[in-house]
Amino acid sequence: MALLYLFAHIDRGNIGNAKIEGMDKDLGLVGNQYNIASTIFFVPYIIFEIPSNIVIKKIRPSIWLSALMLAWGVVMTCMGVVQNFSGLAACRVLLGVFEAGFFPGAAFLVGQWYPRHELQQRLALFYTASALSGALSGLLAFAIARMDGLRGIEGWRWIFIVEGAVTVFLGLAMPLLISDSLERVGWLSDTEKRVLDLRLRLSGVRTNSEESDKFSWKLLLQTMTDWKIALGILIAFANSVPNAAFKFTMPQIIQQFGFSTQTAQLLTIPPYFLGAVSAWLNGRLSDKFAWRMPFIAGPLTVLCVAFAILFTLSVNVRQNMPGMYFGVMLAQIGIYPLLPGTIAWVGNNLAPSWKRSIGLAWLLAAGNVGSIIGTSIFLDKEGPRYPTGYGVSLGIICMGLVSAIVMELALMRLNKVKARISEASVRQAHTQAELDAMGEKSPLYQYIL
């Protein structure tokens, strides 16, 4: 999953690397056309996330996810031959359609293997691919752009062609490598499968009566109006806005410090590497202490400090270059623990599995509205100051921090109410199937804080 997500993020973010290699000039982009091309990706990406997670419950994940990857790899390769803004925008739309189902599907699939208190560090390992993609994208772009002029093709086109071809190759290989479920794999004994199944049932990841876990339109409506997911979406905004902004503008921001194009590509690597380490370390600690909120609120606080530094020092970018670069690195340390933490926290408190599948897709779909904001607020005409970009991001980060605190207090109160209920009386009043159908609203279900 991490390998797949690595290339998903490289393929959606390499437009930023291509831009500073001359893509915008060769295609004749004017005004805010680059921002439009960056942003338009997220429109189909948001629309198709929930339908894709409904499909993945019906079709084997190894087949569905691999087909999506193969399709977006072909689209990425086609971006290397576009001739104008219209062609670029059309490819970005198709890229959003095919990438939409991957992350929610992969997050749901990973969540089917681990008890609730062991999930975040696995999601963090998976999600570090997003941070590493930023580092690897800069390194790959630096190397591939040296092919400029080979066979009469510009260097920025080679970025799309080479990276798209690698994605197609992986898409063809992945059906053999993705594990659909513990029942289907051949590398576990029957005893090991039984142990895993029991652990997942005891943790509440699996229900004891499968007939209580079915899709319905009522379940879809209940899931999309769930208050926990709504708060999770606000926290996800605090990740998606700055994440999308940096994904598409970091090479340009660093170039404005006074560095050459090649140096700017390479200087994107350390911040993303620190983001990957931060995501993994936060996931480890969150699972160790079986506590989600501090390991979301902590990175949000770091992110607030980072954007306050960037907003303040951007009045004179070149003179304040060391502080600005420190702020960029600090921002990645704050950004990358947020999404695995939010997915783990919200997903841990959704049951049964159909609700978890739809809920995670809705969380990511609505949360990605922030990506549209993030790609629209860093305007070329405001560079290198970017007051709108840094200011709006800072406000949304503060909103996410308040949402995390509210969710912690609300879940804590609900657990106290459930603790006063007698388990014996509950089991006398309800069958196991009825309790499973209630999901997290069951009187016996304890929320993860």
From TrEMBL:
Q: Give TM segment ranges.
A: 34-56, 63-82, 94-111, 123-144, 156-178, 227-246, 266-283, 295-317, 323-346, 358-378, 390-411
**PROSITE patterns found in the cross-reference section:** MFS
| Listed Pfam families | MFS_1 (PF07690)
Answer whether the UniProt record assigns the keyword Transport to this protein. Answer: yes
SUPFAM superfamilies under this entry?
MFS general substrate transporter (SSF103473)
Q: Which InterPro entries match?
A: MFS, MFS_dom, MFS_trans_sf
Which species? Neoarthrinium moseri
What is this protein identified as?
A: Major facilitator superfamily (MFS) profile domain-containing protein
